[in-house]
Amino acid sequence: xxxxxxxxxxxxxxxxxxxxxxxxxxxxxxxxxxxxxxxxxxxxxxxxxxxxxxxxxxxxxxxxxxxxxxxxxxxxxxxxxxxxxxxxxxxxxxxxxxxxxxxxxxxxxxxxxxxxxxxxxxxxxxxxxxxxxxxxxxxxxxxxxxxxxxxxxxxxxxxxxxxxxxxxxxxxxxxxxxxxxxxxxxxxxxxxxxxxxxxxxxxxxxxxxxxxxxxxxxxxxxxxxxxxxxxxxxxxxxxxxxxxxxxxxxxxxxxxxxxxxxxxxxxxxxxxxxxxxxxxxxxxxxxxxxxxxxxxxxxxxxxxxxxxxxxxxxxxxxxxxxxxxxxxxxxxxxxxxxxxxxxxxxxxxxxxxxxxxxxxxxxxxxxxxxxxxxxxxxx
Length: 379
Description:
The protein has helices spanning about 1-45, 50-60, 80-120, 130, 150-180, 185-195, 200-215, 225-245, 250-260, 265-275, 275-290, 295-300, 320-330, 345-375. The chain has a domain at about 125-375: MetI-like (MetI-like fold, Orthogonal Bundle), CATH 1.10.3720. It is an all-alpha fold. The longest helix has about 45 residues, at about 80-120.
């Protein structure tokens, strides 16, 4: 019995070896057939080296090679068309680049011309005397008077407007970005802020005048009224620019703070506001520079005044834009026998005050850039 089982095992081994030999022989035959076909195709005069490689890949995966003649022949591109297309692209690119350069040069020329006019017309009257005296007691074409009272009024009114606008604007921006989400009230608030951004400045002055007339009386004029009018213009600017700065803070910082168990209000104060401090300061300074040159709302609210008034809660107060308007629109006539009378002194004062106002705005913008650079992360 044992011998019979051994004989059967030997028989199976022989059959398996024979099968393996047959498979090897068949595999060798197939490979030899592939090599012969590849050699025949590669030796053909009409088959390139690239076609031989492609056919080798197809034979490897036992794919039937396609008939080269059945393929659609690709028509060679016409050189004339390529040249025309390339010329058209180069011409378009050159024309667009030249137009951009011309627009930049045009804007630069406008800015240079404005700066030249300001400096050439206003630098002649700028002096320590002009910057340190007011217009009290000055009339006609007298070679006297300055802008000190207007500088004080501009500083005080703008400061009060910033005190009113900056906290309100920042708090509204924080609410819209951190707490409101996509609620209907948040969308309504954003829409109203956008509408307020585009209102004319004279409307803000009318609003402030109507408010104080209703509360105090129709004869009331003060720097506070002008500050409220300017704050109506400042708040939308602070809200929109600050909200955009807060949205730039990565959500990963907020989530990491929440994961550590930090409350939301502390996350906003310690993480969000500190990260966006540079952008927030820039937004505030740009908003101040935007309203410091307003004239129409201050004509209605603060009015005109020739003397120095340091009390923003009582009495009229003049600013640099109103001073420029007053001097440029006034007329001076000198008699034939008049001494020390200059018929163009009012225009010279207006250009001098305009130069000082532009310098103030320039200093504010440069200060915003400097503060943003110092407060930015990684600097």
